Each structure stands twice: as structure tokens, then as C-alpha cells.
Amino acid sequence: MRRWIYATLVCGTLDIVYAFIASATLKGRDPVTVLQGVATGPFGDAAASWGLGGAALGALTHYAIMAAMVAIGFTLHARKPFTTMPWWLAGSIYGLALWFVMYGIVLPMRFGAPFPNPDPVALVVWGLPHWLCVAWPLAWLTRRPT
């Protein structure tokens, strides 16, 4: 349980900090607006106008999603063929799966987002955190010494 909480906090924090930086750089959005945007997923568009309460719900939503991603990742990384792969390869495969679920299923269903994103810059910028911030750190944290 402690490893799961630790991995959730590490991966979740890496991911949300990446989102803050990318959103500020590319769209001029501040962290509160980013978190409110996360809250609109489960709570509807009105969450974007809920101030700090909407941001707090967005943070809780983000870490809840991350907890699920980490739990699934722990389960996969404990089974073959993941246990026989180098951590970076197992993480790459899981990162691709995370990206596909988020951008190929969740966002198109909830927001009507196109898949794949026709903007190559957005495709890379918003795809990278699935590997850099979630899948690779998780795979590294779950690796077994050889």
C-alpha cells in the first residue's frame, strides 16, 4: 500500500507539474485554470467557474485517476511478459496504452476531441507526459533487480 501511495504521488506530481508548465507555455493558463479543467471531466463544464473549489476537485480528480493508473501499472508490471522486459520497454508499452485510453477513448467521449490530434506539436507535447511522467517512472519504481 505504501509503494502504491508513493508511486501515485510521484507520478501524479510529475504529471501535473508537466501540465502546469505546458499549459502556461502553450496556452497561457495558470495552475488553477488547469485544475479546474481537470474537474470539468467528471463534474461538467460548470466546474471551470468554481474558483479554488473547482481547482481542489480537479486536483483530487487528477490524483484519483493517477491512483488507478498506478494500480493497473503495478498489476501489469508484476506479470509476464512485463516481468521479463527491461523497465523502459515495459514502461513504453504501458505509456502507449495510457495515451491511447486517454486520447483515443476518454477525451473524445467526454469532450469530442479528435484522435489522433491533428496538430503534431500538441500530439507530442500532450503525449509525452504519459511516458516521461507516468509510465517510465512507474516501470522504474516497480522494476526487479536482476
Describe this entry's structure for a reader.
The structure is a single chain. With 146 residues, the protein is mainly alpha-helical. It has one domain. 78% of the residues lie in helices and 0% in strands. The chain contains five helices and no strands. It has helices at 2-27, 31-43, 51-77, 87-111, 120-142. The protein starts with a helix and ends with a helix. The model has no long low-confidence stretch (mean pLDDT 94).
List keywords for this structure.
146 residues, DUF1440 domain-containing protein, mainly alpha, transmembrane
Strand content: under 5%
Helix content: over 70%
Tell me the major beta sheet.
none
Could you tell me the radius of gyration in angstroms? 16 Å
Structure summary, number of beta strands: 0
Number of helices: 5
Q: What's the mean pLDDT score?
A: 94
Q: How are helices and strands ordered from N to C?
A: HHHHH
- Helix/strand-derived class? mainly alpha
Give the low-pLDDT segments. Answer: none
Number of structural units classed as domains: 1
**Coarse morphology:** globular
Separation of termini?
A: 24 Å
